[in-house]
Amino acid sequence: MAAPLCRILIFAKAPVAGAVKTRLIPRLGAAGAAHFAHEMLNFTFIEALAVADVRVELCAAPAPDDTAWHNKVPAGVETSDQGNGDLGERLARAAKRAIGSGERAILIGSDCPALDRHRLQSAAAALEDVDAFIHPAADGGYALLALRRFSPDIFAGIAWSSDAVAEQTLQRIGRLGWSCCAGETLRDIDDPADYDAWITEQPPA
Question: Tell me: the pLDDT tens digits for 21-50?
């Protein structure tokens, strides 16, 4: 019997100047930060769509029918509204929906350039052996959380936007008695220091 499909759930804001990547505005300006967000979103779409045997869904803010998303979502990407609530509530809704439909859930953002098709494929493959797989982020959050089981405890009461997110999430997984594996720590591009470090790592043109 074939393994259940994985659904890659990409959580992203529309790349609107002044409303996205605001911590990068001092370094790039409002328009530059929005342009960078758009480039990273396109990269994320390309890499996710290249993964075998998955569905790809944009969990959008604002809702996907907003004009801010016009011509920004490629063919092959399904869309949904992130909806209300804190990040945990929004992640939980999407994960519960995917897992409840018989799929596995891979939750990511759109600001981690190290999260390429190979790491996404490896995360999907890891769920053949474990209940959860995580790529911690250098800031203490996580760049990816893959699940083949659902519990609201994974998302409720987490100190979002703190350096304890990954640690707290792993503690919750442990208390549930789930099997879990962690991949390498990756860097999200959230602030000027992240951006400058990433630029420094790029090979010469």
Answer: 999 999 999 999 999 999 999 999 999 999
Structural domain that includes position 47: 6-201
Task: Give tens-digit pLDDT for 101-116.
Answer: 999 999 999 999 999 9
DSSP 8-state code for residue 2: P
Q: Is residue 125 part of a domain?
A: yes
Cβ proximity of 56 and 77 under 8 Å:
yes
Q: Which two tokens stand for residue 20?
A: 């996205």
Is the distance from CB of 53 to CB of 6 less than 8 angstroms? yes
From CA 131, how far away is CA 58, in angstroms rounded?
A: 23
**What is the domain-level CATH number for residue 30?**
3.90.550.10
Q: Could you give the 3-state DSSP secondary structure of residue 142?
A: strand
Report the 10 Å Cβ neighbour count for 11: 19
Give CA–CA dist 146/155, Å, rounded. 13
User: Which among 102, 97, 50 has a CA at the least distance from the CA of 76?
Assistant: 50
Q: Which two tokens stand for residue 28?
A: 């790039």
Handedness of CA 11, 143, 104, 171 (dihedral sign): negative
Q: What is the CA radius of gyration of the chain?
A: 16
For residue 161, the one-letter residue type is S
Q: Are 143 and 137 in contact (CB under 8 A)?
A: yes
Domains held by the chain: number: 1
- For residue 1, being part of any structural domain is answered with no
